[in-house]
Amino acid sequence: MFVCATLSAIMLVHGRFQKRAAKFAQEFTANANNVAQEVITLVRTVRVYGTEKQEFKRYANWLDKLYDVSFRQTVAYGGWSLSLNYLYHSTQVIGVVIGGLAIMSGKLTAEQLTKFTLYAEWLILSTWWIGDNWSSLMQSVGASEKVFRLMDLLPSKQLSSEGLKLEKLKGQIQYADVSFSYPSRPTVPILGGLNLTLNPNEVVAIVGLSGSGKSTIINLLLRLYEPTNGQILIDGVPLTELDIRWFRERIGFVGQEPRLFRMDISSNIKYGCPRDVSHEEVIWAAKQAYAHDFIMALPDGYNTIVDDALLSGGQKQRVAIARALLRDPSILLLDEATSALDAESEHYVKSVITKVSRDSKAKRTVVIIAHRLSTIQTADRIIVMENGNIVEDGKHIDLIEKGGLYSRLARRQNDDLK
Ligand SMILES: Nc1ncnc2c1ncn2[C@@H]1O[C@H](COP(=O)(O)OP(=O)(O)OP(=O)(O)O)[C@@H](O)[C@H]1O
């Protein structure tokens, strides 16, 4: 009984250790994989900066930690097996020695000693077997805790098709006292009580210094994040009450750095379009986005397989604009690229923006986040942002005359061009 009790005590300590070790092993493996994935994705940057050795060290650092925890796990298991062998065989030796003496003094028969030895063996081996399975179970529990935590999360409303579907999306967007902080930095306020109404069919440009919160306004409209306070209303209905899939189907979005999928260019333009589209419509969208000519110059035209690396930044931007226009969206969101486009690409992107803004047949609200102020001079309204607040709101001419932040930004860009 003493041996079984000792084995049980070791089993509990060993099981707890294996559970913790499994958690660490999983974490270190994930971190090592993250480094590998990051380096492969950013391989050009790593090569250009010659940081191969540093990255190798970063990867090796996590592998060393993994090795360390795996080594400890193996040593612990060795100790657990050793304790069985030690306790089991020493019990047998002690049993046979004491039992033998008892037989010689006539206190015990050989049959009783044999029975005792057999029962003791069964008991000890069964206790060990339970303990061994217990430690494996603890190891699995440690490794699967994170998976169960993820499984327990409630399904995101982002993926559901619940909520209101309006008869028609007119495109009125209202930010009512919206405050926001990113979940990763909850103490840093990005927007502080933003009040802004964009009317249907209006072309609105949002400008401001880098980091003033322009893209955040669009992220909230796309419901990639929820406001910390206040709410966003679409045609007077809270965004949270709308069917998010239905709403997003009616939005055309071109991000700062559009990404292409590894498939033919026609499929890239059709990507995410909620209706069946003909090849003629794809060509129409590409022409609207000034992408048709360069697509036709590719080896297989619209059937050319492209990926993120095959086209220039400006070309990808135009494919993304064609993708957005093909949906014939009620709300068009353009987040102009901050990265330097070559002069020709910039000219094309500017022309598309001007064309889209002036298309009186297409009834849609257009929101352009602009870094080059020359692009948005014809917008119906220009919103100027500073540190998460709107500091100016008006037409280009009025804002220039006002002599505030917008006129300073415009002057600075003109000076840069001189
Ligand atoms: N995912 C994120 N997590 C935490 N902070 C973020 C995140 N995205 C942006 N921020 C921070 O929020 C602030 C506003 O960022 P935002 O991208 O809205 O600015 P912006 O005006 O669009 O800038 P830019 O003109 O450079 O694109 C910045 O200080 C930025 O560091």
From TrEMBL:
Q: Tell me the domain of life.
A: Eukaryota
Which Pfam families does this entry report, sorted A to Z? ABC_membrane, ABC_tran
Q: Which GO terms describe its molecular function?
A: ABC-type transporter activity; ATP binding; ATP hydrolysis activity
Please tell me whether the keyword Disulfide bond is annotated for this protein.
no
Tell me where in this chain the ABC transporter domain is found.
173-412
Q: Which GO terms describe its cellular component?
A: mitochondrial inner membrane
Q: How does it sit in the membrane?
A: Multi-pass membrane protein
Q: Which residues form the signal peptide?
A: none
Q: Where mainly located?
A: mitochondrion
Give the UniProt keywords, A-Z: ATP-binding, Membrane, Nucleotide-binding, Transmembrane, Transmembrane helix, Transport
In what residue span(s) does the ABC transmembrane type-1 domain sit? 1-139
| Subcellular localization, as worded in the UniProt entry | Mitochondrion inner membrane
Protein name, as recorded: ABC transporter B family member 26 chloroplastic
Q: Which organism is it from?
A: Zea mays (Maize)
Q: What is the lineage of its organism?
A: Eukaryota, Viridiplantae, Streptophyta, Embryophyta, Tracheophyta
Gene of this entry: LOC103650860
